[in-house]
# Entry
Amino acid sequence: MEPRQAVNKVALLVGGAAVAVAALGLGYKYSRKPEELVRVGVVSQLLVHPLKSGKAVSVPLAECLKMGLKCGQMQDRHWMVVKDDGHMVTGRQEPRLVLVSLTCERGSVCLNGPNMTELRFPVQQPDNPVVNCRVFGTDVQGRDCGDEASRWLVDYLGAEKTLRLVHFEATMRARKAANMEPLFSPNEEVAYPDCGPVMLLSQASVKDLSSKLDKEVTVERFRPNIVISDCEAFAEDSWEELQIGSVRLRRVMSCGRCVFTTVDPETGIISRKEPLETLKSYRQCSPKEKHIYKSDPLFGQLHSVKRTGVLQVGDDVYQIRR
# Structure
């Protein structure tokens, strides 16, 4: 083959490949179903729970990151109480944990509880040891927060055994959400939440439940991150993908409820009965989902974060339809 013919052939091949790639790109573009944003509600509360099982902190604005909500140095479920062997301690074992407030102020952690003197210590304590912890049978790390925090917790809870406070830091080994719930993506990571990074619940669903109880309950009992108003009860069950501001969320699964819902967030007293029994009477999963939820009643939705950004109280909530 003559050199000029060879060059022409190569040019034709390259040009043909470019045309094919362009055609594929155009085909993909026009084969994608257009998105439709349908307003379904408004954000009425943003709740960060810095301490696992601790008191909720209501904030007007929060970053929505892959591992959950963050406001300043407070990040959702990034502190946790553990036994001296590293196993988690939650409100299921120590109901009065729900009355403990953990906040951050100018580089310090502030611990507060009923009849306790406030304890302050640095958020960052690089000289403290990193310990191995266990959350629902999965391994995770935490930075020990020191002896003073340990004594504070023991004094508050009247515990006979040693308790430690640990803090999850960005460089630490996180937990794979899929190890707890296989419906999550294998790449989804969390610190100390039970399984998912964001839990969403509507105010109307809580009102519906309260109408069936002798005593009303509040959203704080169910520990959501995002509370939605201006929608029907349980509308959130059908929202597969949402846009709030620049944030995009994808529904992964419903939130199966346990005995922790029977802890009163105002008193720290556990009844082990309501509202769990009432939820079981009308919020069971379909038979085909029994292998996922078993007998746990469903209340609220767990989401993964598809696109990070900032959330604000008052943001409109849009369902993404295709």
Remarks:
- The chain is about 20% helix and 35% strand.
- Residues 3-31 form the longest helix (29 residues).
- Helices lie at 3-31, 147-157, 177-180, 203-210, 276-282, 290-293.
